[in-house]
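Homework-ish question, so no full write-ups if that breaks the rules, but can someone show me the predicted structure for this set?
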Amino acid sequence: MTKKDFLKDPVKHIDIKSFDSTSIIDSMRDMSFTSRDTAIATDIYTKMIRENDCTIFLTLAGSTSAGGCMQVYTDLIKANMIDVVVATGASIVDMDFFEALGFKHYKGSPDVDDKLLRKFYIDRIYDTYIDEEELQICDHTIKLIADGLAPKAYSSREFIREMGRYLTKHAVKKDSLVQVAFENNVPIFCPAFIDSSAGFGLVKHQWERPGNHLYIDAIKDFLELTKIKMAAPSSGLFIIGGGVPKNFTQDTVICAEIIGKEVPMHKYAIQITVADARDGACSSSTLKEASSWGKVDTVYEQMVYAEATSVLPLIGSYLYHKGDWKKRTAKEWAKMLDA
Amino acid sequence: MTKKDFLKDPVKHIDIKSFDSTSIIDSMRDMSFTSRDTAIATDIYTKMIRENDCTIFLTLAGSTSAGGCMQVYTDLIKANMIDVVVATGASIVDMDFFEALGFKHYKGSPDVDDKLLRKFYIDRIYDTYIDEEELQICDHTIKLIADGLAPKAYSSREFIREMGRYLTKHAVKKDSLVQVAFENNVPIFCPAFIDSSAGFGLVKHQWERPGNHLYIDAIKDFLELTKIKMAAPSSGLFIIGGGVPKNFTQDTVICAEIIGKEVPMHKYAIQITVADARDGACSSSTLKEASSWGKVDTVYEQMVYAEATSVLPLIGSYLYHKGDWKKRTAKEWAKMLDA
Amino acid sequence: MTKKDFLKDPVKHIDIKSFDSTSIIDSMRDMSFTSRDTAIATDIYTKMIRENDCTIFLTLAGSTSAGGCMQVYTDLIKANMIDVVVATGASIVDMDFFEALGFKHYKGSPDVDDKLLRKFYIDRIYDTYIDEEELQICDHTIKLIADGLAPKAYSSREFIREMGRYLTKHAVKKDSLVQVAFENNVPIFCPAFIDSSAGFGLVKHQWERPGNHLYIDAIKDFLELTKIKMAAPSSGLFIIGGGVPKNFTQDTVICAEIIGKEVPMHKYAIQITVADARDGACSSSTLKEASSWGKVDTVYEQMVYAEATSVLPLIGSYLYHKGDWKKRTAKEWAKMLDA
Amino acid sequence: MTKKDFLKDPVKHIDIKSFDSTSIIDSMRDMSFTSRDTAIATDIYTKMIRENDCTIFLTLAGSTSAGGCMQVYTDLIKANMIDVVVATGASIVDMDFFEALGFKHYKGSPDVDDKLLRKFYIDRIYDTYIDEEELQICDHTIKLIADGLAPKAYSSREFIREMGRYLTKHAVKKDSLVQVAFENNVPIFCPAFIDSSAGFGLVKHQWERPGNHLYIDAIKDFLELTKIKMAAPSSGLFIIGGGVPKNFTQDTVICAEIIGKEVPMHKYAIQITVADARDGACSSSTLKEASSWGKVDTVYEQMVYAEATSVLPLIGSYLYHKGDWKKRTAKEWAKMLDA
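A: Not a homework solution, just the prediction itself:
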């Protein structure tokens, strides 16, 4: 076996425009269990879209971008169905920005000898492989971008905006989330930005330039995200996976109150997760539980207990073909934040 | 609130013939995680269909029949893609036979006051309701059928065949699994038949007729099922949920050996489940684990970790529209067993 | 590697008498999540013991007997804390009766090459191994017992009673659940008895003696179990795992009603499981859901979401050392059923 | 119902010194499934302690501190069994620092009306309640500490050190993790520090003092944590829950390489989690998967699939009473970082 034998079948991202799931979701609405939950979640998303004043937050944790859903998120932004992205660093840098640089994820197996993978510098995410040598190019590109910026404090959003700008000139694969969000003035936040390939590049940036380097100030992220919540008349959450992005976005309601402005709870919330509510962890806490914290309203909320790659394409295709997004105006919150 | 308020929105069963999931499954084949597992499982099923000598066993546990997938199984039988059914009693009697008598399952909520449901004699399966008074009519019908039969030992298969015969005359809803299986000579086994609405009717039958009643002999079930395995040149398993039906069907390989005939392991096996392999229970044991027992071969096996209502319609619709079943001959194993 | 290399470290069953978990459970009562649930479940069990009129049903599914908890169940019976056992066939025959014949389970690994195990006739349950050649001796012993019985219909309970009688003469390991239950007149039911090593032996018995063999009549099981429920002034359930044993035992409430005697719901119920409620399957359905069916009361019920080997020893040791069982009278329901 | 009715039974933290789990863990070593995994994990921890050169990282996600395990972590630090803590902000600020200020968590129920809780400003974590008005005092205290510091960039570790210093003067409850870690020179890192009660206080700090405020620089955290990894001859991970803390700590191996120093993989790793490996998320990825990334060695690694409150007390008590820690020298990494 050579390294090439492992890295030969690339993951291809599903195109929600290429098939129409309308009749499937319409059937699922009258079924039970996860199928009905999927349809209800889709219907709540439709409400978010139809309420033009509602700002839609996508929160993203887990590896769905590596696992074939990367284009779904890009298409949702292009179709004006997402206004703000709050994500793990891995989703944005190791997966999306990485592919924008021309690299791929590969189909693998969960039953492989990990020592052999290690020998070949192949990283594994369950059944998916990444070439670590390519990932190091990604780290290095982040460092290059950082080296070119003024040595001050940036929110992760500001830094990711620079990554988007970089891609407009250097992208091998057009149509990445980072670039499309940049072009559509959709801000992307990574509240734990350093916990990613970006972290390696940025540590190296600081290590090489003591006293003359930039910072990533997470407080600024929280303030900027809260400013959007304060400016938005209404809001809804589309939560993939949970984690810090989920909690961070929910918390903007409390944060606004702390700095002196009462805002409504998030009016809509849907979450796709395999997590289990019983251990008190954030990823798995139900949306009803969040309502006790004053974060999320309970009228329009739905948990979908599924691994997201199996249901997200159905939801996305339905929304795309239903076309309610055509009447929706772009929020372009990045403009407000950069002003 | 009245009872009617709870029982107003019936579950409607998804029709895999009415939409075409081909392009979705084709996309999922190049994704990761549950989506790819779903595509691989579909491809293994395709192999089972194309190998004309392969007998296909459907094993059924859980409540997917109540939850909107009842017609999927019927359509698979009609399209000659299932040769034997091994199921929980609930799937066959409380759900399928129940609807054949003209009753329905209803869309409900998991967040309901169960004491209120109890007051109204409404039974709940997660988010789905059943009218218990209607279920008692189902119990009673089973008793009527039993009362009309000779007082001897029956396999569950033989008894269910009588239920099918009953439905050819009395069914309100045509197209039930029990009736369609009867008409297509597809045997249905329930290794724990008494653990269902049938149990109530049959206990009453015995209670009222001491010394003059029938038996359900589970040993006979196992022998009959093993006879099919011995007669089939090759075999494959389509496992929904796990439980006794899964284990019972896998065990026919060992059983054949015990009574003196070496048979090949089940050549193909796919399982859809949400269960967790770590507690050593049968439902959750992986197909690889089954191979250590000599039950299932490991070349063509795939676990799909999903709640079945969300992925089964995609698999079924793909297989239906792909059309490989059109060239497949019916096995009609009931004929051999009844001979 | 030889077969012996795999089968060298036997599983040893934990002895709840040898350590005292009282202070641990007392601390857990004031914690959260699974620890508190464990303490609450223990407290409900204490209530069952203190209410002398309460008949306690143990329902057993999964592989905890193979996994080191076999002696826990035996000790609970000896200490008069269990009056009826309803179990999977595997728990009773493949695990308990098997060890009574002098065989062992062995510590193994979930990350083993199952093809190699197959070669050596070693069966695997997650991380535990069984020698299949020894298991075939177990099958054969069942056949021998059957061959010695009159050719009529038996409940599984009646047959298991004969297995207990056999062990009083032939057991290599005393103190098995089957033997101790026999000696203490605690009935054991296996509603899916044939789905076990017993099934192989009994099929062979029928195969070799056409027209002159016994039956296992599951209807009789249900009737006998319901008779206990009707005779018991009050009842409680200790549910390990779920499955058919759980549902079957819960259903006695309905069954009593069907044959004309109103009985109270099961007053107490505790369940230890890793299963997930969201797929509508029986194993995972919550005890609250069961209350909608009129099976279980909701005042004293507790789900403990844990793999049972990790919490059952703590519960058992606490109950044993607390000593409330010393004042409890034995129910000896087998006497009533055999009368 | 008044607010007091909900907040009357405080969670009490289990004291691993007050009971001895040695014989339980010794028994579990010869069982199967989660019990054996728990014993193996304990044995690996023992190895970490006995290898004096090994630096032990505790990574903490989820709500075990709120759920009764807060004192476990403190006792492990006092007994010199933890050298570095990497945690979610919630564990450190909302739970530990919060209780140090004199507040409590309360025993609640998962089946409560969350709207009623909202009315009373009670926050819920599964079955545990927090008084949100007290939490706001916690937010405010963080702001006070920030207001007293020089307006420059801090790692979360540096800021948490100031919180520890604050508690030496103002703590109501002595013995908090934050204070004990401060006093023992054990550094605490929160890579997503702002995603917590601290975030609210720090946003307010920045909001009120434009141009004259501090930053939390997550890059500095990663660099400091990597410096420990580079200075430690050997290392082991004790992972509770997963999340960003797990990944961040694992990644120090790669980070060291990026800035030019080859370091060994983490030699030991144990993880307690309820998460499911199949969705490719970080929390749930197995330790074997991590080895493909070059982060964790696979010789001494063990996943324990359990909700941590149920097994952590057993592990902690065993290690405490075994006493290997008595011969171990303190690492006091905070001294190196502050030098």
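Now go work out the reasoning yourself. Hint: The longest helix of chain D spans residues 33-50.
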